Amino acid sequence: MIFNKTRVFLTIAAVTIAVPLGQYLKIIPSFQNANSEESIKKNPKIVSSYLSCATLSERMKDFLKNHYVFRTFEPELAKRTFDTFIKLLDPGKLYFTRDDINEFQKQQPDLFKNINNYDCRLITGENGIYERYRKRISEATQLAKEALKQNQDFTKDEYLETDRKKIEWAKSTDELKERWRKTIKFIVLNMKDSDDIEKVRTRLMKRYDLIKKDIDSKTSDERFSLFLNSFAFSLDPHSSFLTPIDNAQFQADFSLKFVGIGATLKSVDGYTVIDSVVPGGAAAKDGRLKKNDKIVAVDSGDNSGIQDVIEMDLSKVVQLIRGKEGTTVKLVILRKEIDGKMNRFTIALKRAVVQIKDNEAKSDIMTINNKKIGVLNLPSFYIDYKGCQDSPSTCRSSFNDMYREIKKLKQLKVDGIVLDLRRNGGGDLNETQKIVSLFIKNPIVTQVEDKDKNVRILPGGELKEDPYLGPLGILVSKYTASASEIVSGAVQDYGRGIIMGNSRTFGKGTVQTVIEVPGTGGRVTDGAIHVTIAKFFRPSGKSNQEKGILSDIVIPDIIEATDIGEKENDYALPYTIIKASRDFKPEKDLSNLIVDLQKLSKERVEKSDEFKKINEAIEKAKKEKNTLVSLKESKTNLAKGTQAKQSKDKTASNKENSNLDKVANKDSSSKNKKNTISSNDPVVEDEENFEFSPKVIRKNDIQLKEAVNILIDSIRLSSNNKN
Question: Which of 62, 132, 246, 605 could form a disulfide with 242 if both were Cys (CB 3.0 to 4.6 A apart)?
């Protein structure tokens, strides 16, 4: 059985599971409980296994007891689970052969029956899927190395299909060998423009050795966890199983604080490298740890002694570095000095609480045509649960921070507010309810339908003073998801403000809860199930599911050319509608105003050289959605290769940083979340010596500037109508 220790979340926050050869599949939301990791590290007697064939069956039943749609082990669910497990292992169809798949598919109809009888041989048995996968990885490593030793002919006119949905499983080893030859050629072509080709080959050789080592070292728990997630992902895109260590990140993700040394880490060629030192953290206060330092060994201080971490999985290094507040961790550092010599030394750091400032609500002011517009940036709906139990009005939460920032802007007498939700992937439902109340008086925030089709009306939170009722705009993108879609939908339904940005938002209209599994062998928990329990609907009865929120005014953005959204996910729940809430009454009809604003914005955009370039890039990208890429070197391909490499490097960096000592922005997943808002525009006005963040307004953020212009237009037009 499972604990009834739950809280409701709406998010697309995602962790990225790394699969061989730099292919990334964003799949699961990551919620964690800090006590789990701490208990594992404090108690050396803890039994390492938290998943077995027997507990696998129990966890699958737990999902079905709570899921919004599925109740039983249906044949369709078995097929989905099998297909997902294979896809997670080999998304690029570079390892398994057609014969492998045919052999395993014969056993797929009995998959659930066997697991419920505690027979997991198909999954982890000697002749099962994972062992065959290990064998194929070993063979593929050799194929990759053989391809790397060859002199690639970049003058030959040939192509590689990059959409694996369009290719079949290889029928023979020769076919796999040819597939690897083209894949390696494509990778080398993309990398060689910025690096010596021999260095590229050396790096790739090492990469494949590391991949093989990582696959071979997976524990029984990790293998069962991968299968259990395959089952969860088959229910819907947002259900998942969280391991005890995964679960340990939960408090950090939602409270914006963690216990550690205060550094972001990345993995480079088998080394754990310091990517940055977090201001205010233990490492920053100590002053000795520097960017690009390599961590080669760690003594976590739990009496297990010093451990070599070269070629260790990054997440496992993070586990060693993290621990209880006030305890000491020792890091053996390798640093390349200015004179080129390698310096090896040890640093002892006392673990401490680090506040994550980057992801909290912030405000700024943009002034255009003598109009002061407040810009509010809210990256997620976060809350420090423990702190808010002790001190609700002063704890760290998205509502408290938004309340503070809005109060600041009101005191500065702004003419309007733009709420920037472009990178907001969601968060806590209670926080969402309260934040809607900051802009709408006594609102119906959303309607929630459970698995039994019971509908519950969720109102806004109580405020000590009146909400902000001035001019309001919401800036959204395809990354705006879940809880942030609730806010946008309520504002649109009530006619409270203008929705601007991408043509639509992400389209996630489902609700999840995290239910912890009782711990065994000294652990606080044995992980948690993160399961979809409901759908949410707008006050009007409309759904955000798959369709998202449609913007009132579309602002050109290259993101429009990307295939991002719930409808792109496998097994997404369908779009449905329900009746409008009985107590829902729109405040205003903005349809005529929106028509006028669309016209004014269009005129402004058409005159802008910057937007003209963006529109041209969007059209070009839409036309060039060709998954068949040339392997012939040319100026065009070199340019594309460089762009592909930069994109790949950025994706890899985001992936690596998501596992760090410092919790990264959940938007780098997905979801995704991705642009870091950087320098400040000098138009900020600081009349009352209020403290503003330098990370709210980017100088070249033309979408934000256009959103501000649209809001100023609405203020002027509304004023004219009154007169």
Answer: 246
Distance, CA of 173 to CA of 86 (rounded, Å)? 18
Domain with 698, as residue range(s), is 362-722
Whether 587 and 660 map to the same domain: the answer is yes
Determine how many CB atoms are found less than 10 A away from the CB of residue 674.
18
Cα angle 63, 69, 70 (rounded to 5 degrees) comes to 50
* Among 178, 280, 190, CA closest to 662: 280
The per-residue pLDDT for range 617-673, each reduced to its tens digit, is 999 888 777 778 888 876 434 444 444 444 433 333 333 233 323 222 333 333 333
- Per-residue pLDDT, 674: 28
Phi and psi of 559, rounded to 5°?
Answer: -60, -25
In the predicted model, what is the mean pLDDT of residues 395-413?
96
Token digits for 229? 């997630």
Query: In a 10 Å sphere around its CB, with 0-12 CB exposed, 13-18 middle and 19+ buried, how is residue 608 labelled?
Result: middle
Q: What is the 3-state secondary structure (H, E, C) of 440-509?
A: CCCCEEEEEEECCCCEEEEECCCCCCCCCCCCEEEEECCCCCCHHHHHHHHHHHCCCCEEEECCECCCCC
Say if residues 605 and 706 touch (Cβ distance below 8 Å).
yes
Question: Are the beta carbons of 415 and 373 closer than 8 angstroms?
Answer: yes
Q: Which residue is listed with tokens 């990208």?
A: 621
DSSP 3-state helix, strand, coil percentages of the chain (rounded to 5)? 40, 20, 40
Dist. CA 333–CA 432, nearest whole Å: 43
- Crossing angle for the helix pair 197-216 and 173-191, to the nearest 10 degrees: 130
pLDDT digits (tens, 9 = 90+) for 657-698: 333 232 223 333 333 332 222 222 222 222 233 444 446 888
- The amino acid that residue 501 corresponds to is G
Same domain, 335 and 262: yes
The residue among 296, 321, 355 that closes a domain is: 355
Q: Given this model, what pLDDT does residue 523 score?
A: 81
Rounded distance between C-alpha atoms, residue 314 and residue 719, angstroms: 57
447 contacts 456 by C-beta, under 8 angstroms: yes
What is d(CA 697, CA 422) in angstroms, rounded to the nearest whole number?
13
Contacts of 244 (CB under 8 A, 6+ apart): 36, 37, 40, 50, 519, 523, 525, 526, 527
How far apart are alpha carbons 58 and 64 in whole angstroms? 10
488 exposed, middle or buried (CB, 10 Å; 0-12, 13-18, 19+)?
buried
Q: For residue 227, how many other CB atoms are within 10 A of its CB?
A: 27
- 387 and 435 part of one domain: yes
C-alpha closest to that of 117 among 64, 54, 51? 54
Q: Is 700 domain-assigned?
A: yes
Number of domains forming the structure of the chain: 2
| Last residue of one domain, picked from the residues 289, 322, 355 | 355
Cα 264 from Cα 277, distance rounded (Å) = 6
pLDDT at 195: 61
Cα angle value 573/7/667 (rounded, 5°) = 60
Q: For 136, how many CA atoms within 13 A lie in the half-sphere containing its CB?
A: 26
Question: Cα–Cα distance between 306 and 325 in angstroms, integer?
Answer: 20
444 vs 713: CA distance, rounded Å? 28
Distance CA 675, CA 477 (A): 12
DSSP collapsed to 3 states, 603-626: HHHHHCHHHHHHHHHHHHHHHCCC
Query: Could you give the C-alpha distances from 569 to 482, 505, 562, 614, 701, in angstroms and in order?
Result: 15, 14, 14, 27, 29
Q: Which residues pair with 307 in a beta bridge?
A: 298
Strands (E), 300-387: 306-308, 328-336, 342-350, 352-355, 362-368, 371-377
Distances (CA, A) of 101 to 95, 605, 697: 11, 52, 51
* Helices 702-722, 609-623: crossing angle, 10 deg rounding: 120
* pTM of the complete model: 0.83
Distance CA(221)–CA(246), nearest Å, equals: 13
